[in-house]
Design brief:
With about 120 residues, the chain is mostly beta strands. The protein contains no helices and 11 strands. A hairpin with a 4-residue loop joins strand 7 and strand 8.
Length: about 120
Amino acid sequence: QVQLVESGGGLVQPGGSLRLSCKASGSLFSIYVMGWYRQAPGEQRELVATITGGGRTNYADSVKGRFTISRDNARNTVYLQIDSLKPEDTAVYYCNADITTTASKTVGRYWGQGTQVTVSS
């Protein structure tokens, strides 16, 4: 059993910052790529950023220069630092991770429950 739990969302004014966290727990064996996605009302879920176990990162063009993804492998946690927030960043932010468990060496993709980020004055 694997769980991903996000935290750190909230209401912030335009230009503000937030730091989202997502911790994986359970019967973990290995965690590979971790990432953040977001879904705005009426829109499809979209990729925000990903990070490999070795720290290689990838960002959506819309967030480059404002968002920073990082991870702490010892804590099985991925972070998303969001700066210079804009109203169009309002969305539910989801983390995901590609994980093998102690029960199965097949890589599975797991998702968190999401955390709401609202940017408004």
